[in-house]
Amino acid sequence: MPHNWQRICCPVDFSACSRAALDQAVSLAFHTGAEIFLLHAMEPPVDTLVTASGTWTPGVLSQLEQDLTDELARWQQAALEAGADHVASEVIVSAHTLGAIVHYAIEHRCDAFVLGSHGAGNSTQVLGSVAAEVVRKAFPTESELPFVQPADVEELPVFDTPAGRLGVLICADSWYPSSYRVLAEQGAEMVAVPVFATGEWRGPWKGYDGADEPDDVDLDDIERLTEDQAWMKYSAPGRAPRAELEKALTVTLRGRFWDLQAEGQPLVVNGDARERAPELDAPLLVSLWL
After folding, report:
1. Are 250 and 195 in contact (CB under 8 A)?
2. Roughly how many angstroms between the first and final C-alpha of the chain, as a whole number?
3. pTM
4. Under CATH, which architecture does the 7-133 domain have?
């Protein structure tokens, strides 16, 4: 069964991929009873939309915003007709679309994102996708390659948070030294690693999957280490400190998600400490400061 999500943020750019993302959000909402927050974030197109005389007219932006609001309302209606019970919609004009989306999700207490990975081509100033700015994965696994385009490792994101500069590595990205180098060069002070591991957590480690192993990997560890031991050695607990990143938290999802079964436990780097949080099928609060 899907997680017990209550508020799903679904940013769209009106592309076919965004329509597919909305369909997925509706499916999740149907199974969980969640409310959908349908959002379009637009950069002010001041560099391209001008009058015939070459001067900017604020009314052009107002009309464009109204047109986008009307289009978003049609998508909202389509979601309701497809089976969603509650759908809110809003158009936001911001010079920083990524920040606007994140702020919107926090403000509305959303607990899940659903968004398409490819947007509206070159029309990024008006209908551009920001999916790649929200999340990027440089090293997809073999099973992900059919539907995930590898990102450039140099573009892995770091975000400003009240706790400091936070780097995010999605699952397998945490197994590669280059990922930590890129985060450190951007001034990251801590690392978050969300993981959905479908193998046996205590079973034999099968080695790297989807990309070649780094030069520092001992190939004799394959089948000799267990999966959890390999995560401790070759992901954040083993690699973050080498890049002088002293705080890192690996968060593993557990349980069934549709037809997939995930195992794991939180892995903590806190200064000199390398720890494993308990394996619990329940919410777990892990603090790097207490």
Report:
1. yes
2. 34
3. 0.62
4. 3-Layer(aba) Sandwich (3.40)
Say which residues have a Cβ less than 8 Å from residue 289's Cβ, sequence separation at least 6.
none
- DSSP characters for the chain? ------EEEEE--SSHHHHHHHHHHHHHHHHH-PEEEEEEEE---TTT---TTS---HHHHHHHHHHHHHHHHHHHHHHHHTT-S-EEEEEEE-S-HHHHHHHHHHHTT--EE---SS-STT-HHHH---HHHH---SS--TTTTTT-PPPPGGG--EEEETTEEEEE--GGGGG-HHHHHHHHHTT--EEEEEE-B-S-TTSBP----SSPPPTT--GGGTTTSBHHHHHHHHSHHHHTGGGT--EEEEEE--EEETTEEEB---EEEETTEEEE----SS-----S--
pLDDT digits (tens, 9 = 90+) for 239-268: 999 999 999 999 998 887 767 788 999 999
135-276 homologous superfamily: Carbon-nitrogen hydrolase (3.60.110.10)
